[in-house]
Amino acid sequence: MPRSESDPRAALRMLPSVEKLTRDDRLAGLPRGLVLRESRRLLDELRAALTAGGEGAATAAASPGLADPAAEVHRRSLEAMRPRHRRVFNATGIVLHTGIGRAPLAPAAVDAIVAAAGSAVVEVDPLTGLRDQRELGVGALLRDLTGAEAALVVNNNAAATMLMLAALTAGREVVVSRGELVEIGGGFRMPDVMARAGCRMVEVGTTNRTWLRDFEQAITPETCALLKVHPSNYRLQGFHGTPSLAELVGLGRARGVMVMEDLGSGLLWQPDLPGLADEPKVAASLAAQPDILCFSGDKLLGGPQCGILLGSKAVIARVRSHPLYRAMRCDKLTLAALEATLRIYRDGDPLQEVPTLRMLSALESELKVRSQQLADLLPGACIVASESFAGSGANPARPLPSFATALRGGDDLCDRLRAVDGVPVFARVAEGRVLFDARTLLLEDLGAVADAIRRAGG
Q1: Cα(420)–Cα(457) distance, rounded to whole angstroms?
Q2: If DSSP states are collapsed to H, E and C, what string results for 295-363?
Q3: Which helix (H) or strand (E) holds 440?
Q4: Per-residue pLDDT averaged across 21-47, rounded?
Q5: What is the dihedral angle through the alpha carbons of 415, 420, 425, 431, rounded to the nearest 10 degrees?
Q6: Most buried by CB count within 10 Å: which residue of 173, 316, 442, 445?
Q7: What single DSSP character describes residue 293?
Q8: Residues 6+ apart with CB under 8 A from 7
Q9: Spatial CA neighbour of 215 closest among 240, 239, 247, 168
C-alpha cells in the first residue's frame, strides 16, 4: 500500500470497495449493518484526507486504516459495540463518585429495576384499575421514615430546587445568604436557578458571615421565602457562620414568610457515621419544621438519581400541581429502585444492605484486611495508608482514613485499567504508585478486581 504523500492518487486506487472490505474473514462474526457503516465511514475518511492533500494526506497515508482497512474496521466495530454505561470497579476511594454514577444500588434495588423493566404498575390503582398518582408508593415510605406530612419525587435535586422555587416563589422575593450562593458541578449556580424559577433573589450578609438580623432587615412586603442552601462541595474555615434552619423558621413564622431548604446530600440515616458528624441530617432539618425541603436520592441516601421534596400537604400539593412537575417526574425504573431502597431503611439493615452506607461505615481494621487480601493476589503489591472521601458534595475537604493496595505505576496503568475488557477498574495515582482504595471495593469483588489488574498489565 503506498504510504507517501507524493502520490495520494496511488493510495486512492489501492482502497478496496465497500463490498470487498466487508467480505474480509476477520469481520464475519460482526453484525452486518455495523460492519457496513464502519467500512463506509473509514473509506470516506481516507478518501477525503487523501484528496485534500497536504498534512491530512500524509497522516492518512501513514494511518493503520490505510495499511489494513479490515483490521481498522474490526477495531472500530468492537468499540462501537462496547456499551458506554457499563459496570466498573470503583477503587478511587471516593464513595459517591459523580463520574462513575454516584451511589451504587443495593441488590434489592437492582432486582426491583429488572422486575419493573417490562409492564409495571405506575399510574394505576392495581385494585380498581383506575388512574392514580405515580409516586404513592415512595411517598408513603418517605412519610413513614421521616414523619413528613407529604413527599414528592422528581428526577434530580436540581430539578427539585427549581420546581419548589418556581411553584412557590415566582414573581416574589427570596432571601438567601451570600455565603450559600453556591455553584456545583456542571455550572449549576443557585443565582441562575432562582432567576430561571422566576423569583427575585435578595442576597444578604457576606461570603463568610451572615447574621439572622441580615435576613430580618431584608424582609419586605414582597418577600415570599427565606432559603437555606447546603454548601455542597466546599467548606469555609475560620471566622464564618450563618443562621441555623431553626432560627430562620422562627423568623419566618414571626414575619409570615415561608422557609425552604436545599439540603443537598440528604443523609437519611440518623446515627452518626465516621467522618460525617457535621453532615446535616434529614431528620434534624424536618425537626426545625421548614415549609419544604429537598435533597438528593443518589448521594448519602444510597438510592437512584432523583430529587426528594418533603413538606406539608398543602405546600407539596402546590408543587405537584405546577406544570414543570410533569417534565421533571421520575420514570418507573427510578421509582422501583427508590422504593426498594427505602424499604431497606424501613424493614432491613441499611448499614449492610445499602452499599453507600456500608462503605462509609467500614472500620479501618476491616479496610486494612481487605487491602491485604487484594495485595495477596497481586505479586509486587503492598498496602499503604490512604485517604478516602464521601464525594458528591458530602462532607467536602474532610478525608476518611482508609487503606489501599499499591502497585508501581502511573497514569498509563490507570488508562489500561479503564480500557480492560470485562469490568474496567477506576483507580488513582499517588507518588508514583497506583492505589486501589479498599473503602470503595467490596469484599466479594476482590478476585475479579485482581484479575482485571493482571489483564491490564499491573
Answers
A1: 10
A2: EECCCCCCCCCCEEEEECHHHHHHHHCCCHHHHHECCHHHHHHHHHHHHHHHHCCHHHHCHHHHHHCCC
A3: none
A4: 94
A5: -30
A6: 316
A7: E
A8: none
A9: 247
Distance (Å, whole) CA 135 – CA 342: 13
Written as nine digits, the cell of 141 is 415510605
101 vs 175: CA distance, rounded Å: 33
Assess contact for 228 and 195: CB atoms under 8 A.
no
What's 423's DSSP letter?
S
What SS3 class is residue 33? Answer: helix
Q: Would you say how long the chain is, in residues?
A: 458
The model's confidence at residue 4, banded by pLDDT at 50, 70 and 90, is very low
Closest alpha carbon to 152 in 167, 165, 166, 142: 142
Angstrom distance (rounded) from CA 409 to CA 425: 14
Give the chain's end-to-end CA distance (angstroms, integer).
37
Check pLDDT > 50 for residue 299.
yes
User: Does residue 393 contact residue 442 with C-beta atoms inside 8 Å?
Assistant: no
**What pLDDT, on the 0 to 100 scale, is given for residue 56?**
63
Closest CA to 427 of 443, 440, 445, 444: 440
Cell of 18: 465497500
C-alpha cell at 326: 410533569
Mean predicted confidence (pLDDT) in 118-130? 89
Measured CA to CA, the distance from residue 453 to residue 458 in angstroms comes to 5
Smallest CA-to-CA distance from 266 within 302, 312, 227, 290 is with: 302
User: Is residue 70 a contact partner of residue 430, using CB atoms and an 8 Å limit?
Assistant: no
Percent of the chain scoring above 90 in pLDDT: 73
User: What's the rounded Cα separation, in Å, for the pair 181 and 158?
Assistant: 14
